[in-house]
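pls design
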């Protein structure tokens, strides 16, 4: 049941991310295509909170999917071997999450604060 809950979170978060970014892209391209630069700037500033929420939703989606995958190892392979594989699968997530957080930190430092 834990796998299903994690996969539910992953699907909902990734769907939210996809739809939010798709709508932002459609209206951004429309504003730029109609040479409405001021409208584009206002739309870009107005959707900042939504885009940020969608981005963190994507991070949550990836993490919950990877965790569900690691837990799936335990359900597929029973016993101590499955438990060991699930543990190492979860342990393997730590460097991945660390790298993602490093990218986020660099983007914040070099793109948003520059």
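designed seq:
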């Amino acid at each position: 049941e834990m796998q299903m809950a994690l996969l539910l979170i992953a699907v909902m978060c990734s769907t939210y991310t996809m739809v939010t970014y798709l709508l932002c892209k459609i209206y951004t391209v429309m504003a730029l295509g109609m040479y409405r630069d001021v409208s584009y700037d206002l739309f870009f500033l107005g959707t900042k909170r939504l885009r940020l929420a969608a981005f963190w939703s994507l991070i949550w989606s990836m993490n919950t999917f990877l965790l569900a995958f690691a837990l799936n190892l335990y359900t597929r392979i029973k016993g101590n071997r499955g438990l060991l594989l699930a543990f190492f699968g979860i342990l393997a997530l730590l460097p991945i999450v660390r790298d993602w957080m490093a990218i986020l930190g660099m983007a914040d430092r070099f793109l948003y604060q520059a």
